[in-house]
Amino acid sequence: MNMNYLITFRSISFALMAKNKLIAKEYSCDVVPVPRTISSSCGYAIEIVDATSSAELKDTLLNADIEFGAIFRFEGSGRQFIYEKIDTFPY
Fold this sequence. Notes:
The structure is a single chain. By secondary structure, the chain is of the alpha+beta class. It has a single domain, classed as Alpha-Beta Plaits. It is 25% helix and 42% strand. It has helices at residues 12-24, 54-63; strands at 3-9, 28-33, 44-51, 70-77, 80-88. It has a 5-stranded antiparallel β-sheet, covered by helices on one side. The longest helix has 13 residues, at 12-24.
């Protein structure tokens, strides 16, 4: 079953590098602001729609030396989304 994921980043540079890597692997994704329900501070995230595995996303980023904050699975529509943290960057 495919899911929707959100990956947070500390900088726009990491978010843009990650977007390029994920698009090269044919993921449908876009850079978005981190939702306020996840963090009250400013930040960037990538929304990945219809992905098969969070482990595959994480491996893609780690293999490219791209640091991320956390990976969330999400569902919902309009302005109502539920986010579940499922992984973090292994510092």
